[in-house]
Amino acid sequence: MASHYETLGLSPDASQEEIKKAHRKLSRKLHPDLNPGGDTEEEYKAVSHAYEVLSDPEKRRNYDATGNENGTGAQGGFGGFGGFGDIFEQFFGGGDGGQGPKSRTAPGRDALIRIRISLEDAVKGTNHKLQLRTAVLCTVCRGECVEPGSHPVTCETCHGAGHIQRPVRSLLGQMMTVAECPACSGYGTTLPKPCPECQGSGRVAETVTKNVKLPAGVDSGTRVHLPGQGEVGTGGGPAGDLYVEIEVDRHPVFERDGDDLRAVLSVPMTAAALGTDVTLETFDGDHEVSIDPGTQSGDEVRMNDLGVPHLRGGGRGDLRVTINVETPRGLDEAQQKLLRDLAEAREETFTEGKLESRGLFSRLKDRLRG
pLDDT tens, 67-82? Predict the structure, then answer.
């Protein structure tokens, strides 16, 4: 089985920042919501578990020492006793012992929220108001975890050490084992009067409203990073980060192609033949699309700098308009006669309703003679 470090693609001496970056990268790659139909759920769970262990300093110390985030070696060996790592750890006061009491203050977790916006907002940028349920600082105790006027007191069981020693029998005889103090849960202090608002955690759950500034040029999958806008930590610890992932809705007229916008413009056959200007409503207001005489279906008109702004760097893409030439239907006799006259004038001869084809080489000869 791969180690937690191997799961994240890191070496055992990786920094906390490297662990965090690796987790974010793999989460974006493997998240089941971003891989519909893909078989990434188990990998995603393994990455999440590895990050949970390695991002916690205490769990990481235990894992590095024993290969187990619970701080104990694998069972087996000498009749079901722990391995030598457990024995020496207990003997020399490793694990929880010797590290001092735990802090009630811990950093908050990062949060990810997904929002939907219109294509126009993605092109222009916008301020988006969102609501989310998160952990915020308790306004009663301000993260102190106790009633105003009260204070934590030193644990009478461990005398502030956060751990206690107990004698145990082992193959090496009687020795002392170190364990977390059950009276104070390893904090070294107890709360005689926990804050009634947060029950001693220093934070409460609350629905908050945030205004998120989305820059022009965002696209589906873009994540906006808001440092310090995630969950507040226990004991008034620093807040994690908030990530806002964008999903852009489809537009009835325009389709995004990288930083270009595409649209299809239908024009009558006569307008395409004679040429004209058509007013097109864009995200930048009304603009004239010039249709050259003889334009064919599928021809493209490129309108510079009317596309999507580049998210990184200046400038923006183009608006690319594909022309669709409409063939008239339901012609009356007079209209049909006009078209026959036009066909005759252009030497496009019909015989019993069929267009006479003179062949490719005949037409090439006529062009060369002309």
Answer: 666 554 443 333 333 3
